[in-house]
Design a protein that fits this description.
Pathway: Purine metabolism; IMP biosynthesis via de novo pathway; N(1)-(5-phospho-D-ribosyl)glycinamide from 5-phospho-alpha-D-ribose 1-diphosphate: step 2/2
GO molecular function, one term: ATP binding
Keywords: ATP-binding, Ligase, Nucleotide-binding, Purine biosynthesis
Strand content: 25-35%
CATH class of the largest domain: Alpha Beta
Low-confidence stretches: none
Structural class: alpha+beta
InterPro entries: ATP-grasp, ATP_grasp_subdomain_1, PreATP-grasp_dom_sf, PRibGlycinamid_synth_ATP-grasp, PRibGlycinamide_synth, PRibGlycinamide_synth_C-dom, PRibGlycinamide_synth_C_sf, PRibGlycinamide_synth_N
Family: Belongs to the GARS family.
CATH topology of the largest domain: D-amino Acid Aminotransferase, Chain A, domain 1
Length: 428
């Protein structure tokens, strides 16, 4: 079949890399794609939020499956739009409905969903600007540290962990009154701080059936030792030793099943990926948040471990036939190291020429914020530029393969963390 994949990041390059391995892939189009996807698929210059242009392209190119990578078009209702158009109503789409995407689009909606369906999560309350006094009074009664979350999408920056009551109160005022995160913080969720080890669990569901994909741990901070500003993710490791069989059985029983059953019970159409941010608190899972797509850079560590046909998985999601899909997972390790532009997550310069190694052993190079200049040279176009995933039978081998490849990739002011996976290695 012909497939249209929406997105332009490292996650989408990893999706494309996996999709074209399938014998059932006739032609893969990526809109808009990047300098990595152009080598294995056909990039299409269409914005992920130009729904009319996407519909017209699906029709003109006889697309048989649409795969939505990022959250923005999902939250804006791309799935509902395509289902409502006569030309595209019968085309399977991998991605939840707009209502389903509200699990990521609104923290308050997500928390209320968890409460209704008995999914373990942190205690919380939600406040608007009109309820500021009540919010400040609520903070007086809470333990520290305390977490403040902008209700809406804030590009991964809308979460604050406040260590003092004064900081929490000042931050709440900034978010609600000064619109620190724009409209995203017109509502603020005040949440209990969870302790434990954080990990990401990924679920593919067709709304009835589900498959639990490999788990991963990501590294959000820019600095080594998890210091500095939060980023979109500086690396990832899969599998992780603190997600053993006993813990994952609890995750399935206490989190995955009630979530999928809750979506069905509440008539929330959901055919796509569910990314569950979890805390392992002394062997008990607690949900930090839901995301309604695969994570980035976790995808670049998770997909290389899937041995079964990935396109068949996607087709099963889109057509509601996931129960007949047999998921096969490699026991090998996959470790992803993200290379970023100097200055990220603050301001950075674009257009730096990138040099790639001629040969790579035991690793894959996934492009994220890359493009071409007027001379056709590979250049950086975003903050997170390249994700390198090393493979190995051991974590040490996978890390060695990743870092060896990273050292062969150069551009002016390139930066990466040298401690990705080292914390897990020290636990082993």
């Amino acid at each position: 079949m012909n497939i249209l994949l929406l997105g332009s990041g490292g996650r989408e390059h990893a999706f494309a890399w996996k999709i074209v391995q399938s014998n059932n892939c006739t032609q893969l189009y990526v809109a808009p794609g990047n300098a990595g996807t152009e080598n294995i698929a056909t990039n299409v210059n269409i914005s992920i939020t130009d729904f009319d242009a996407i519909r017209d392209f699906i029709t003109s190119e006889n697309i048989g499956l649409v795969v939505v990578g990022p959250e923005e078009p999902l939250v804006k209702g791309i799935v509902d739009y395509l289902l409502a158009q006569p030309e595209t109503a019968e085309i399977p789409v991998v991605g939840p409905s707009q209502l389903g995407a509200t699990l990521e689009g609104s923290k308050d909606f997500s928390k209320r969903f968890m409460q209704r369906n008995n999914v373990p999560t942190a205690a919380y309350e939600t406040f608007t600007a009109a309820q500021l006094d009540a919010g400040l009074a609520y903070l007086d009664k809470q333990n520290l540290p305390i977490v403040l979350k902008a209700d809406g999408l804030a590009a991964g920056k809308g979460v604050l962990i406040c260590l003092t009551l004064e900081e929490a109160k000042a931050s709440l005022k900034e978010m609600l009154l000064d619109k620190k995160f724009g409209e995203a913080s017109s509502k603020v969720v005040i949440e209990e701080f969870l302790t434990g080890i954080e990990l990401s669990v990924f679920v593919a569901t067709d709304g009835k059936n589900y498959k639990i994909l490999p788990e991963a741990k990501d590294y959000k901070r820019i600095g080594e030792g998890d210091t500095g500003l939060n980023t979109g993710g500086m690396g990832a490791v899969s599998p992780v030793i603190f997600a053993d069989e006993a813990f994952m059985a609890k995750v399935e029983e206490k989190v995955v099943k009630p979530t999928v059953e809750g979506l069905a019970k509440e008539n929330i159409p959901y055919k796509g990926f569910l990314f569950i941010g979890l805390m392992n608190n002394d062997g008990e899972p607690q949900v930090i948040e839901y995301n309604v797509r695969m994570g980035d850079p976790e995808t670049e560590a998770v997909l290389p471990r899937i041995e079964s046909d990935f396109l068949d998985l996607l087709h099963g999601i889109g057509t509601g036939t996931l129960d007949s899909y047999e998921l096969k997972i490699s026991p090998d390790y996959a470790t992803t190291v993200v290379m970023v532009s100097g200055g990220y997550p603050g301001s950075y310069e674009k257009g730096k020429v990138i040099s790639l190694p001629e040969s790579v052993v035991g690793a894959e190079i996934f492009h994220a914020g890359t493009g071409r200049n007027d001379k056709g040279e590979l250049v950086n176009q975003g903050g997170r530029v390249i994700a390198v995933t090393g493979r190995g039978e051991s974590l040490q081998e996978a890390l060695s393969n990743a870092f060896t490849t990273v050292k062969g990739i150069t551009w002016d002011q390139a930066y990466y963390r040298k401690d990705i996976g080292m914390d897990i290695l020290n636990l082993m």
